[in-house]
Amino acid sequence: MPATALRLDHLAIARQFASAPEDWVVPPRFDPVERWYHRLAATEDHEVWLLTWLPGQQTDLHDHGGSAGAFHVFSGTLTEDTVNGPAHAPRVVTRDLGEGAGRRFGTHHVHRIVNRGVDPAISVHVYGPALTTMTRYRLSPAGLQVLTVDRAGAQW
Ligand SMILES: [Fe+2]
């Protein structure tokens, strides 16, 4: 099989990092003002991020600029709202992911992650290839609308 046919299992990578917190380059911190995140690793075909979530902290709806990926809940419980369907008539699917749960996502995935629990949460995220842009969206009566396009190195 040619090497290009091999696909990385981003969730397996996330789980591998989650299984060895003693190897994380920084310990996780919680920031009540701004959601805390830190890049744990980067290779030519993927990158690994550590994120923390105090109760109530969340992302906006966003995509991953053409990267695929996965995330794994190291501790706490996170809720993922995924937007499916056409942009003019989106449907939102909500899932709770507890400690040890994880999800893979493809290159067109639009979601929002929220800590709706009462305990802080920690998660490990893998993106392949590394994120270069993320488009942020909002849901309006007219459908999914673009808010901003953020670029790596400028907005995060
Ligand atoms: Fe995401």
UniProtKB/TrEMBL annotation:
Record's signal peptide: none
Residues at which Fe cation binds: 62, 64, 111
Positions in coiled-coil regions: none
Keywords, in A-Z order: Dioxygenase, Iron, Metal-binding, Oxidoreductase
GO molecular function: ferrous iron binding; oxidoreductase activity, acting on single donors with incorporation of molecular oxygen, incorporation of two atoms of oxygen
Highest taxon above the source species: Bacteria
Family label: Belongs to the cysteine dioxygenase family.
Identification of the protein by name: Cysteine dioxygenase type I
